[in-house]
Amino acid sequence: MASDWVIPVIILLATSAGTIPVHAALYFLARIIVKRTPNQVDDDLVLYLRWPTMALFPLIGLLVTLPFQSYMSDGVIGAIRHAVIILLIAAATWVLINLVRVSSRVATRQARETREKDPLGYRRVETQVVVICRLAYTVIVLFAIAGVLMTFPAAWSYGVSILASAGVAGLIVTLAARPGLENMIASLTIALSQPITLEDEVLVDGEHGYIEEITAQFVVIRTIDERRLVYPLTRFTGSPFQNWTRTKLEKMAMVTLTLGLNTDLDKLRERLISVLQDCTDWDRRSSHLQVSGFEEEKMQVRIIASTANGTAKARLECAIREKLLPFLVSPPTISRGSSRTDVVQMSGPFEKLGWGDGTTDLASMAWPPDPIRRRPASILKNPAV
């Protein structure tokens, strides 16, 4: 009795093992062929399909050999066939996933050739590849799970009962699947319209950072202090946010200084040019020093300089502040805004009008002077003056 099932099992195992040398020979032949072609796509195909196809060959051999096993009962053959079909679905899923990986490598390789000339375009392609590939992985796995479930007769009856009821159970399933469907639609929206791409500089809910990862369910933002903020995909398709690198990477560094009204702006400009010339983060497109406003006895000076990206912008702003600080605090090179009262020497018409000895406290002197109170008695006697 033992020989009745030992011989069929040996035959099945031998058939499966016999397909492995066939696969190895085909793989060796494919390697020789692809080495002689200049295209890199066939190399990727051979590399990524080697192990999935190695799993497929023995399973196909088993499936072909099973009908000829007359020594086995129908129940045993049916059980083995069922297991082989499930394994075939898993192997086919593996093949499809690796085909998607090959496609992503081809698209990324083509975009990488223009990375230096068009970094923003490269980031767009990279974002599309990442999002579409992950969405494709999800769809392939879901179909594989559905295929495995459909091999069980109970799953068919359960599915028919759900479709037949079309009542509370159907409503519950629909509500449960709603977040997944929303995220799937959001993934397609991000992949096609691209409101965000990888390494985009964004401002979301008052948090500033960079897009680090885009998955099928959420987006990870990396802040400057190395925190990670996780948002659902629908946050970027249904609510407003700021994308500072949507169309270009170049940024303008801006530093605001509060200085005294008697500041020598020409010397400050000379110092600024010297500072910018020593900074590698300045891309030398443009630089400006402008007076942007006044506050009582002070003025607001705005410094603007161009940079290649957001990271260089932050570094350049810090460098401008650090390198201008010694220049601003060293008198008498330049005057800063201060709360003290400046005493200045005044001569000429003020002395002739009899306003002291030429030393006047500007803080105690109203301007313009009162026409009656400020004039000397000698002038008041002459109405013509």
UniProtKB/TrEMBL annotation:
Pfam families: MS_channel_2nd. SUPFAM superfamilies: Sm-like ribonucleoproteins. One of its GO terms (cellular component) is membrane. The chain crosses the membrane at residues 6-33, 45-68, 80-100, 129-149, 155-177. Residues 181-246 form the Mechanosensitive ion channel MscS domain. GO terms for biological process: transmembrane transport. InterPro entries: LSM_dom_sf, MscS_channel_2nd. Coiled coil: none annotated. Keywords: Membrane, Transmembrane, Transmembrane helix. This is Mechanosensitive ion channel-domain-containing protein.
